[in-house]
Amino acid sequence: MNPNFILDGASGEADKPGYYPFSANPQELNPPRGYIVSANHQPTPASGIAIPGYYNLADRARQLDDQLAKPNVRWDLNNSQALQLDNGSGYAKRLLEPLLGDLRAAAGTPDEQALVEELAAWDGDHHLDSRPATLFNQLVYQLAREAMLDELGDAFFDNLLYTRVLDSALPRLAADAQSPWWDQRNSTDREDRPAIIKRAWQASLAHLDTVLGTDRSQWQWGKAHSLTHGHPLGLQPPLDKVFNVGPLPVPGGHETPNNLSHKVGPAPWSVVYGPSTRRLIDLADASRSLGINPVGQSGVLFDAHNRDQAEAYARGEYQPMHNAEADVARHSRSELTLQPAR
């Protein structure tokens, strides 16, 4: 049965005919490839029985698997950092490939044609200087808006932008030129995919010109994508200047290994979730382990360690994790003692 929809309890369709055995659950024990990848994506059980649920896209797991599967790579702390901080994803290529012909037709000037070719050649890396990352994420929003807003209305469309359903739906829509979603319901003329793509393309350029400026060489991802660690009291200006940490320009993006993710929407984009910590543990020598917190070790507002890791986290840096007692003593800067009142 499909748990994503309301079931009719009176008809018997919600009755469970039985339970799968525990052995049907997703599990791996020392797989021959030598590693296990989990990125909140739908696992494939050895039983072949798909476990339904609200999963993230598989692209982030594929990106990790592609790197880990490379032969003759000896993994150490350095290339493991690069793996955690990978800003790439195959999602953009998967979504854009069926649309490139329509995008090339929509590009009305040599400058626009160059932008389309930049998207076509883009590897999906959301690094700070990337222009195609900025253009792609704006285009994703405009594509969804032009295709779906008229059918859904404002409230349902805004709810859709928060769901993982949209991530799965857009590549399927892009690949199906005959989908009824391409026809605008509020238009008297029947429209098709090229018409909607052209409108989404023009709207994307117009919005980025307004928000980031008409010098399109400056449409860099780091100028449009930022991380702010919000405080409840920072919701009201000017208290945000005191209580919030950020905004900080950050790489990464929606469902990349460096999963500093934002809501699908128009530029600029604020990170809405990301790694709560980054950690690398050398099981052969735990004293060499590395880690970083998004903000700092202290939750006390004006403490010296309240936000002293925030900029390093945004830059993709790490701190040594001291485990041996002698190392802790040698690197301690201060000591906090909590004394009970009685």
Structural write-up:
The protein is α+β, with helices and mostly antiparallel strands and 342 residues long. The protein has 3 domains: 1-86, no CATH class; 93-222, Penicillin amidase (Acylase) alpha subunit, N-terminal domain, CATH 1.10.1400; 276-342, no CATH class. The protein is 37% helix and 7% strand. The chain contains 12 helices and 7 strands. It has helices spanning 59-68, 77-84, 91-96, 100-106, 110-121, 131-160, 165-175, 193-212, 221-224, 240-243, 310-315, 325-331; strands at 225-229, 245-249, 261-262, 269-273, 278-280, 290-292, 319-320. It has a 4-stranded mixed beta sheet. The mean pLDDT is 91.
End-to-end distance: 57 Å
Say how many strands there are. Answer: 7
- How would you characterize the largest beta sheet? 4 strands, mixed
Beta-strand residue percentage: 5-15%
Radius of gyration: 24 Å
| DSSP helix fraction | 25-40%
Task: Tell me the CATH topology of the largest domain.
Answer: Penicillin amidase (Acylase) alpha subunit, N-terminal domain
Shape summary: globular
Report the mean per-residue pLDDT as an integer: 91
- Element order, helices and strands? HHHHHHHHHEHEEEEEHEH
According to CATH, what is the class of the largest domain? Mainly Alpha
- The chain-level structural class is alpha+beta
Whole-number count of domains: 3
CATH architecture title of the largest domain: Orthogonal Bundle
Q: Runs with pLDDT <50, length 5+?
A: none
Give the strand order, joined by hyphens, for the main sheet. Answer: 2-1-4-3
Please work out how many helical segments DSSP would assign: 12
